[in-house]
């Protein structure tokens, strides 16, 4: 089934079963491999993308749900919030292995859009669904604080 949507501001078309997780379509069909597979059951946040501006887990989002809608992946996230976060990530050496970081950044962008000056509690609460197996949580919080300053 042909499904059309907007991906990173451009038209995209895929031929996929309607219940195929968006994550597979992004990675396998559209070669947007910045979005990562972690758990596949909506528990880790590695697959976070923006769906109509909201942070969503693409491993549990059927591709039919995005028909006619807008999806942004880490490859297409060039907002001021994303740039500030990427700068902070580099300056503070936030990531360790890096695997979860595109999901962390997509969530952090959404947080800063909703709350430009988040408290530590805001950050911990909003980011609690993004798991980092290297436990870089303190640096992630510091990176978000720096980007928000
Ligand atoms: Fe989607 Fe873990 S891979 S939440």
From TrEMBL:
It holds the Pfam family Fer2_2. Keywords: 2Fe-2S, Iron, Iron-sulfur, Metal-binding, Oxidoreductase. InterPro entries: 2Fe-2S-bd, 2Fe-2S-bd_dom_sf, 2Fe-2S_ferredoxin-like_sf, 2Fe-2S_ferredoxin-type, 2Fe2S_fd_BS, Beta-grasp_dom_sf, Diverse_Oxidoreductases. Residues 1-77 form the 2Fe-2S ferredoxin-type domain. This is (2Fe-2S)-binding protein. It comes from Zhongshania marina.
């Amino acid at each position: 089934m042909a499904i059309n949507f907007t991906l990173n501001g451009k038209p995209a078309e895929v031929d996929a079963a309607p219940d195929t997780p968006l994550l597979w379509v992004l990675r396998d069909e559209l070669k947007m491999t910045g979005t990562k597979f972690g758990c596949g059951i909506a528990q880790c946040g590695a697959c976070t993308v923006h769906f109509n501006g909201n942070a969503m887990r693409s491993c549990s989002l059927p591709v039919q749900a995005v028909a006619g809608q807008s999806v942004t992946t880490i490859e297409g996230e060039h907002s001021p919030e994303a740039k500030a976060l990427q700068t902070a990530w580099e300056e503070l050496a936030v990531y360790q292995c890096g695997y979860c970081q595109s999901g962390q950044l997509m969530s952090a962008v959404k947080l800063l859009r909703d709350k430009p000056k988040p408290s530590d509690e805001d950050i911990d609460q909003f980011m609690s669904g993004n798991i980092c197996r290297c436990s870089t949580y303190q640096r992630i919080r510091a990176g978000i604080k720096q980007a928000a300053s």
